[in-house]
Amino acid sequence: MDEAELHEGSRVALLVPGSPAYVDLVMGLLATGVFPVPLDPRLTAAERERILADVRPHLVVDDEAQVARLLAQLPAETRRALPRARPMHVTSGTTGTPKGVHSGLLADAAAALVAEERDLWGFAADDLNLVLSPLYHSAPLRFAMGTLLAGGRIVVPGPFDPERITQAIVDERPTTMFCVPAHLQRLFAHWGRVGVPDLSSFRMVAHAGAPCPPAVKHRLIEIFPPGSTWEFYGSTEGQFTACRSEEWLERPGTVGRARPGRTLSVDDDGQIWCAVPAHARFTYFAAPEKTAQAWRETPEGPAFSVGDLGRLDDEGYLYLDGRREDLVITGGVNVYPTEVENTLRELDGVDDIAVFGVPDDAWGQRVVAAVVGTATAVDLDAFARQHLAPPKRPKDYRFVPELPRTLTGKVRRQDLSRTSSP
């Protein structure tokens, strides 16, 4: 479909690197009722085809010239106008099946969506948001959009590099930043060698995406301005909590209390549910069964869950007991073992395979594959590079005579992480 044929309700898949123009395009499309679908431009052809088949975009943008053409067609005022929807980010379930998180057109709820983010994070006209993470992820895009809608500015240094980010802090004097713990670890290691830059310009630094090692958390609190650091817990589907670091110091391990306008509950199985206002509701695009599984009615209204487990203390502070079953979070990126397994099983010489995560000081977790068969690590690595995006590629291959399974055939991944050896 040509750019000129887009209309209200159309979906536009974005497979280009993040930039200020990228954010302008997202905001312009949303203001006109068109749904941008941000995707990792590093996806392999096979991954791209599978996701696009489910999303069914009206247009695929995969080069910078298309970004410029689309922006030229949009009235300039739409780039800072009220968004009429949320971007349609794509997430994967534990089956590895891509799911588009779809808000629909928000109508009267659009203003409430913008106001909620501004009230919580304090976005203002004098803000400069430093973008560390890829803009196809929901959190960095949300912070960038919130800043621009408040009249502030963003700076996008490019792919994460500690030296480049440090120089941006020195040159640009940013006021806000979203990051994942892996970013902080790499920055702190770099600053340990070259010295800590002047961080006094920051009024807010928020991290999420993976558990933060306590030593990293304490260092964050130590070197950034008092009261400036936050953690939040959420998912592509929606946001659950927000927590100032001072609260974490009083209750180590918590991810905070429910964000304003939300109510948290935990069912008898320990699964976390979050009741949300109208502007935060969603469906899984063209997947009514999956949508129904994600939602239930509660006394506080419709509540959703992404399958995470946790517990609430008497004051409403949430503690996570486990991520979604089998999920590996590496550098803040969700990797679903089934998707990786299904891909690598196509290689000759792979008789059986199980993918799991092991602790990693730099990335939180790293992806590991236990393999039964005659394929070598070299064969597997070459195949993974051809068919899987970088975060999904196993970093270690461990060869075993058979996989440990339950009586019903389910792989016991915890057993593998304890007993298998490189």
Explain what you see.
- It is a single chain.
- This protein has 422 residues and is an alpha/beta fold.
- Among the domains are: 177 residues, ANL, N-terminal domain (Rossmann fold, 3-Layer(aba) Sandwich), CATH 3.40.50; 92 residues, 2-Layer Sandwich (GMP Synthetase, Chain A, domain 3), CATH 3.30.300.
- It has 13 helices and 24 strands.
- The strands form six sheets. A nine-stranded mixed sheet has the order 7-6-8-9-10-11-12-19-18, sandwiched between helices. A four-stranded antiparallel sheet has the order 13-14-17-16.
- Strand 6, helix 5 and strand 7 form a beta-alpha-beta unit.
- Helix 1 crosses helix 3 and helix 6 crosses helix 7.
- The radius of gyration is 21 Å and the shape is globular.
CATH architectural label of the domain at 82-258: 3-Layer(aba) Sandwich
CATH level 4 superfamily of the domain at 82-258:
ANL, N-terminal domain
Assign the CATH topology of the domain at 82-258.
Rossmann fold
Instruction: Tell me the distance between the termini.
Output: 49 Å
CATH class type of the domain at 82-258: Alpha Beta
- Give the helix level as a range of percent: 25-40%
Main β-sheet description: 9 strands, mixed
Radius of gyration: 21 Å
The 3D shape can be described as: globular
Low-confidence stretches: none
Mean pLDDT: 92
In percent, how much strand structure appears in the residues?
25-35%
